[in-house]
Each structure stands twice: as structure tokens, then as C-alpha cells.
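step 4 of 6: structure.
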Amino acid sequence: MAFLTLDHVSHHYFSEKSYTKALEDITFSVDEGEFVALLGPSGCGKSTILSIISGIISQTEGSVLLNKTPILKSTMAIGYMLQQDYLFPWKTIMDNVCMGPKIMGTKTVSTTQKAEDLLEEVGLTNISSTYPDALSGGMRQRVALVRTLMTDPKVLLLDEPFSALDYLTKLKLENLVSKLLKEYNKTALLVTHDIGEAISMSDRIIVMDANPGKIAKCFEVPIELRNEEPFWVRRHPKYHVLFEKVWNELNKDDTISSTQKEVESHNETKD
Amino acid sequence: MKQRTDDALFEQYQIRVNRDKKIVLTWQVIILIGFFAVWEISSRLYWIDPLIFSSPTKVFNLITRKVIDGSILTHLQITIFETVLGFIIGTILGIAFASILWASPRLSRIFDPYLVILNAMPKVALGPIIIVALGPGYASIIAMGIIISVVITTIVIYSAFKEVNPNYIKVLQGFGATRRQYFREAVFPATLPAMISTLKVNVGLAWVGVIVGEFLVSKEGLGYLIVYGFQVFDFTLVMSSLILIAIVAALMYKVVEKIERWLIKHTG
Ligand SMILES: Nc1ncnc2c1ncn2[C@@H]1O[C@H](COP(=O)(O)OP(=O)(O)OP(=O)(O)O)[C@@H](O)[C@H]1O
Ligand SMILES: [Mg+2]
């Protein structure tokens, strides 16, 4: 049952003198509870797809359906987590986290309690009255995650949420996020540059091409990998097989030598 | 043992810092005294014309006499009152105009060339028109203080509004916020430091406007004393007014600096 559907979606960015075709004829759908990763070179329109789904911008052609109804503007059903955390430095952690309910006018007395509970769930206690400056990158990213979860979105859009983090923090957060999403049965779309992250977190990987952004290929993640924690997925033999396939797809036009590829693939797994 | 050497090093450092401070202070005092001494001596020895440049003792005597009989205080009060009012209203109006421009991108595009013209225009040249329009009184002088700071404040604050990181707005857009909510939650708080730093600039500008205004119309105030002294050829009065302006302006600047620090601490 398709929950979220993009049907022949194209997007042009217009400026006074010219235009950029960022997306061309994107069609895919995501089932409820499914986790899909978007992978592709810089500038292939990954962020544009998320912005369209979240309702921040509207596609120039095609349609986006959530539960069979078109998405016309931002709704509570969709939570968008930007590439960097963008916590508001002048607000306390609690006020940052409660931003969604406040904007939507759904803030009640129980909101604070819910925020405390969610913060605790991601391992952050006693920080609700401090300011974002006082937190480490990993902590800030967790706060941003809680901020996104506060409005109970059915679909989560994650735009390279871990790219600014060190490797260890990243692995820990991957585990946490995939655990939380499974627990609440959320549908999620993850944009990433990291093949390992895509394989270890998602059920399906969509690889994109640039200029204009198109879908190049889809990969199903083997069932054995899906229910493993991201950290352990990276040690599974099937992981390496899929890694190789995705790698080849991403580099099919490049003349990168196979030895270099091997080195990189190796680094990726041990790092 | 280790602890002792650490302490000793720190002590040496403190001694160095203190000596440095003392040297700076000594030079500051020397310059101040030297300035007045040279002024006094050259005036007494007729190296400069004492009728025009007066002398520190004459200025000092005049100021003490006028403070004692209270006649200077009204002038001081009025000028300070006009400056503070011009400064506050100018700043608030500037922020308000900037907010209106931000609220409507079309309006800001329409007004863009006019802002450029107004900004390039030397505002004191508008003095006579303001006086004709508002009458020769406080209103005109305060208006001068306002008009000189309001345009630049509008421009500076508006460009600060536009430079707010768009990703903050994206976060809010994701929650379906309205433009008014972007302003309240992101744009305004993000630019508060910029607004606070215009305070210091504006206090200086308000002084310019008020003194020029007093030159033109008033019967009271430090600017008036300067013009009056000039007309009756009492340059001791002119010099006294200048020195008072220097002192009061410096004090006001310090107060604004204090307010600024307090605001940054309590809003940031
Ligand atoms: N606001 C905009 N105005 C004009 N062009 C834009 C705008 N945003 C993106 N583009 C263009 O659209 C294309 C896709 O951009 P997008 O940000 O979606 O790429 P991306 O896949 O997310 O890249 P990255 O991996 O670097 O984040 C790029 O060519 C970009 O230059
Ligand atoms: Mg992007």
C-alpha cells in the first residue's frame, strides 16, 4: 500500500535570467513504515525532493500524494530535519523542542512533559533549560531529532542528519534513530552521501543522477540486513556485496580505477 | 614546590599587567594636563588670541559660576532631553520601518531607490524645512535628532533582517509557520544584536541633529549657548559649552554601552 507517492514530479528553479531543472520525472512511492534512502551526487536534487514533500516549495510539474491526498502546504504529518541542526541559539533547549507545537498552536501543559520524555529517550536529561551553544554536535543533532518528533509526524524527512558528526557519534545516532523509527513505526526518507549509512539504515535505496536529477536505479536491501542495528549491518557479508553494487552504480561514468575503489570501500567499512 | 613556581609566575604576570596599566594611565593624564597647560600658557603669553580661544581658567571660572547660580543646568537638561528623545524615537522608528519593509518584499522593492536618496541626502540640510513645518521649538530640534538617525537605522536593520540564515525560516516553514511567526521566532531575535549595536551609532547621530537644531532655532540648550556666545563674541562661553558637550556626550555614550552590555546579556 503506497503511503507517500511522487508521480512524475519535476522541478525547475527560476531566476530572472535563466532556470535550472533540478528534478526530472521523479516517480516512486514509499509504503507506511518503510525506510527509504536517497543517494546521489551533490546537486542531483535530493534536498529539493525533501523540500517538495515537506510542502516548503511546490513542484513545477507532477503530483505528490500522502495517503492519496495531494500535499499542498506544510502539514503536521510530515517532519523535516535539515542537514544541520539549526537550533535557535536564543531559545532554551525546551523552547527549541516545543517550537513545532507552538507554531501550530497545539501547545498544551502536557507538551513539556512529552518533550522531557522524548529528550530522555534520546539520552538527554537535565539540559532543557540550557542553550544550544552548551551542547556538542551529537547532542544538538539529537535535540533537532526530538524537535522533529514532537509534532508526531507520520513521515520523517532526514536531510543528511549525521554528516556533520564524527564517525563514532554518527554510528551511535544511526542506531538510535533506526531504533526509534522502528519503535514508532515511522515512514522515513533519508538523504545521505554515505553508502554505508544508506545500506545500514534503510529498506530500499534510490540512487539518483544529476543534471537534471533523475532516478538512476533502486536497490532493495536484503531482508537479513533490515532488522540489524546499523553498526552490525556493516559487518555482514551481504553488506559488502550491496555496497559494491551501489558503488558501481554511483561511479558508472567515472574512470576511477578499481584499486582506488577497493581502498575506499575498505576504509568505509573499517574507518 | 611546583605550586610555588606557578604562583610566582602568575605574580610576575600580574605585576607586568599592572605596570602596563599604569603607563597607559600616566600618559593619558599627561596628555590631558598638557593640553590644558599649553592652552593656558599660550593664551597668557598671547601666542593665541585670548579673546578668541579663551583659556582654561576663564572657562573653568565661567562653568563653576554658572553651575552655582544654576543657569547652565536648564541648558544642559534641555539638550540632554532632546538628544535622548531623538535617539530613542529615531532608533524605534528605524526598527519599525525596517520591519514593515521586511513584511512586504514588494514594498521594500518600491522604496529601495527612495531609501538610497534619503540616505545620501545630508539630513541637516532639511533643517529649515523642518523648522517651518514644526515651528521653532523643541519639536523641530527633536525631529532633527530623529531624522538624522532614522534612515540609516532603517537601512542597517533591514539588511540585517535579510541576512538572517534562511534555514531558520525553513525550520519554521516545515511546521507551517506564517510570515509573522518567522519574524517573531527567527528574524527579530536573530537580529537583536544588530539592533543593539545601532544604539551606539545613533546616540552620536542624535547629538549632531540636536546641536544643529539648536543652532538654528532655540533659545535654550548647549547648541544655543554656542551660537549666542559666537554672536556676542563671548568665546569663553563657546569653549565652556563645547567642553560640557564633550563631557556629557562621553557620559551618554558610556551609559548606552552599559545598556548594550546589559541587553546582550539578558537577551542573548
Ligand atoms: N533556491 C534555489 N535556486 C536556484 N537553484 C537551486 C536552488 N536550490 C537548489 N538549486 C539547484 O538545484 C539543483 C539541486 O539542488 P539540491 O539542493 O536539491 O541538491 P542536493 O542533491 O541536495 O545536493 P547536496 O547533496 O549538495 O545537498 C542544484 O543544481 C542546485 O544548484
Ligand atoms: Mg542537499
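step 5 of 6: annotate
 - The pocket of magnesium ion (ligand 2) is lined by residues A 46-47, 159 (CB under 6 Å).
 - The beta strands of chain A are 2-14, 19-31, 35-39, 61-66, 69-70, 78-81, 155-159, 187-192, 204-209, 214-220.
step 6 of 6: archive
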